[in-house]
Amino acid sequence: MRIEQEHRPPARGRPARRFNDRVEDAVAWLLASLALFTLLGAVVVGFGVHGHASERARVESDSRAPVRAVLLEATPNVPGVEPGRMSPPVRVPVRWSGTDGAEHFGELTLHGPLPAGMEVTAWVDRRGELVGAPLTAGAAVPLAVMAATGVLVAAGSGLSLLAIGARRWVNVRNAAWWAEEWAQIEPRWSGRNR
Predict the structure, then answer these.
(1) Which whole number is the average pLDDT over 98-122?
(2) Tell me: the pLDDT tens digits for 132-191?
(3) Which of 11, 31, 56, 89 fits a 20 to 30 Å CA distance from 69?
(4) What is the SS3 assignment for 6?
(5) Are 115 and 64 in contact (CB under 8 A)?
(6) What stretches of the chain show up as alpha helix (H) in DSSP?
(7) Handedness of CA 92, 97, 99, 105 (dihedral sign)
(8) For the whole model, what pTM was predicted?
(9) How many other CB atoms sit within 10 Å of the CB of residue 145?
């Protein structure tokens, strides 16, 4: 055993690297860097959407007021929806009293089934016209998470495709290199070249 160790050739360090190996390393570093930038971008987008949604919620809550509206008609029955189940949204005529005491008429989008004469909460703007309910401050977080997730999914898909393409190119180049090297070594190894 000692003799084998003494006759072993000394380690020469790292073997020479092929061009393919360098490309593979460069692509790996590029993909890792892009993944980190994607993560940073998703965080920035998430905070941006959260800030925008929070500001929108503040503006809408300041400019909209709730009123009690009375349904003038029952919500229509939607074919295919079982009785007692919530139906898809439908437009229903309503009546409400404005801040000036005048009676107003309009249409609300509601989920049924709801009977005629029922009171529902509607939202009006400063002019007294029907508008949607204001965005709540609590809705800003899910919007920000969805935006950040969208960035991660989109960029992650692109990075995955880039990684698959790079891996395929390197594998094709390696196979060609190995075939070329084997064509040179095989005759000596098999003894056909004697």
Answers:
(1) 86
(2) 889 888 899 999 999 999 999 999 999 999 999 988 988 998 899 889 888 888 888 887
(3) 56
(4) helix
(5) no
(6) 2-7, 19-63, 140-190
(7) positive
(8) 0.64
(9) 14
